[in-house]
């Protein structure tokens, strides 16, 4: 009895020893702080959970909600997440015993030639029945942690899909936000061009009246006509740009093919000029070290590395023996009426140890392949971290420069507007020619179009910075806790 207890204790100790390396996060040389920028304090981050709502545009909020609910990339990632949950459930179940129920019924005829011979008795063929019902318990003692490593890899795979879904959602929201701003800018540029066209038509009509009255020459009239036609030619291009961006936005929010094909003008509510969209002035503060916890793509890459590390242990354990225990309890009889009686009881206990003896390098190759895949995952993780920090660096720079550019172009528009007014007055007074007026008008149109682009770029730079910093600042419950509670 003492020997049996000692053997059982040794088995349990071995079962707790998992081969293969334990995961350790790669060390990265991170900066201590971001470059100087206008950032919010920690206590003010709560307002930035749904960061796109800080632009205070109800139409944008509705588009984001629809995109999150209907976008096909989100649905695809949700299905992958369910697959990962199922894999974790399977890996957890592999660590538990299996209980099988089997029932058999057989009727067999034994030939007379195989029956025992007795003096004076002629051997006869026999026909016998056999009925049995039994339960079979099977359990693999995880001597070297193969099953534990498989579950560890499944947990990491689930985490990877959770963070991948977050990354897809963040990218989708950022795409919706920036495409929406692009569309509003295109609509504003179309409106500017249409207003300019009206002004050009009025100028041409006025010059025609003056030409017919003999107050100006044909050259001035043709210059006004050429400028009118040039502006008119811009309208279809602006309309095409608006239509294209409406289609892009329709795909992002999950419109059906029928909706896209019948889309004449997207229902975006009342037209919102870019200047009317609220532009956040400050951004939540984050430390560079926090970026590794906030960026879902970085977390997904790390989870992939965790799974690859666990896979090394699985490959190493595959080269070692497996210990399986079996137990059978049942009943067997030649007549069904005798089943489940004491005399028909049957049971059995057994164990087996099996492992590779000569596999001619298969096991070693499996370990080497797992180690190579882990090295690839480590390189991908490090590349993802570097790319994330570079995106933040670029986004911070764009955030600052876009604001400076928008401010400069606003001043330019004000100056060009005054120049255009003065040019028209001096032309009417006869001090300058009509060509100077046209130049001032062209400069004003170009400056107004550039201002629409600059405000769009400033809005997009803010959205890009939020995306680069990891999106909203809510801290959800760790997915790993849910993963560990998965039913087997």
Automatic annotation (TrEMBL):
GO cellular component term, pick one: cell outer membrane
Membrane topology classification: Lipid-anchor
Gene3D superfamilies, per the entry: Outer membrane efflux proteins (OEP)
Example GO molecular function: efflux transmembrane transporter activity
Main localization category: membrane
Stored Pfam families: OEP
Signal peptide: 1-24
Mitochondrion in keyword set: no
Compartments, as annotated in UniProt: Cell outer membrane
Keywords tagged on the record: Lipoprotein, Membrane, Palmitate, Signal, Transmembrane, Transmembrane beta strand
NCBIfam families linked: outer_NodT
Family the UniProt entry places it in: Belongs to the outer membrane factor (OMF) (TC 1.B.17) family.
Record's protein name: RND efflux system, outer membrane lipoprotein, NodT family
Organism: Alkalilimnicola ehrlichii (strain ATCC BAA-1101 / DSM 17681 / MLHE-1)
């Amino acid at each position: 009895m003492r020997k049996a207890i000692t053997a059982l204790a040794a088995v349990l100790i071995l079962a707790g020893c998992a081969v293969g390396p334990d995961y350790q996060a790669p060390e990265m040389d991170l900066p201590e702080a971001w470059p100087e920028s206008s950032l919010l304090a920690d206590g003010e981050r709560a307002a930035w959970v749904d960061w796109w709502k800080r632009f205070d545009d109800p139409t944008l909020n509705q588009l984001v909600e629809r995109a999150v609910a209907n976008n096909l990339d989100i649905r695809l990632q949700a299905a992958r997440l369910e697959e990962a949950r199922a894999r974790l459930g399977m890996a957890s179940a592999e660590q538990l015993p299996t209980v099988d129920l089997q029932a058999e019924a057989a009727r067999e005829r034994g030939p007379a030639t195989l029956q025992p011979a007795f003096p004076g008795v002629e051997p006869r063929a026999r026909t016998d029945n056999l009925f049995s019902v039994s339960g079979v318990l099977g359990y693999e003692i995880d001597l070297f942690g193969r099953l534990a490593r498989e579950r560890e890899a499944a947990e990491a795979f689930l985490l990877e899909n959770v963070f991948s879904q977050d990354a897809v959602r963040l990218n989708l929201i950022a795409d919706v936000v920036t495409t929406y701003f692009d569309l509003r800018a295109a609509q504003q540029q179309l409106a500017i061009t249409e207003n300019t066209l009206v002004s050009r038509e009025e100028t041409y009509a006025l010059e025609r009246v003056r030409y017919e009255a003999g107050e100006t020459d044909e050259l001035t009239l043709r210059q006004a006509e050429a400028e009118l036609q040039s502006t008119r030619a811009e309208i279809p291009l602006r309309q095409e740009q608006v239509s294209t961006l409406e289609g892009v936005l329709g795909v992002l929010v999950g419109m059906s093919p029928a909706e896209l094909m019948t889309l004449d003008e997207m229902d975006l509510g009342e037209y919102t000029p870019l200047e009317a969209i609220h532009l956040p002035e400050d951004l939540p503060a984050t430390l560079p070290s926090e970026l590794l916890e906030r960026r879902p793509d970085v977390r997904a890459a790390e989870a992939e590395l965790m799974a690859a590390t666990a896979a090394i242990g699985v490959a190493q354990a595959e080269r070692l023996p497996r210990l399986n225990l079996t137990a059978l309890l049942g009943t067997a009889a030649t007549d069904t009426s005798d089943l489940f009686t004491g005399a028909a009881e049957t049971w059995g206990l057994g164990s087996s140890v099996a492992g590779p003896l000569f596999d001619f390098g298969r096991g070693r190759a499996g370990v080497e392949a797992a180690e190579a895949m882990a090295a690839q995952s480590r390189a991908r993780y490090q590349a993802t971290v570097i790319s994330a920090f570079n995106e933040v660096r670029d986004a911070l720079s764009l955030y600052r420069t876009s604001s400076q550019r928008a401010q400069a172009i606003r001043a330019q528009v004000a100056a060009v507007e005054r120049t255009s007014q003065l040019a028209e007055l001096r032309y009417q007074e006869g001090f300058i020619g009509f060509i100077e007026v046209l130049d001032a008008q062209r400069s004003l149109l170009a400056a107004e179009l550039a201002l629409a682009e600059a405000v769009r770029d400033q809005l997009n730079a803010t959205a890009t910075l939020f995306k680069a910093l990891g999106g909203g600042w809510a801290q959800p419950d760790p997915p790993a806790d849910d993963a560990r509670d998965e039913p087997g």
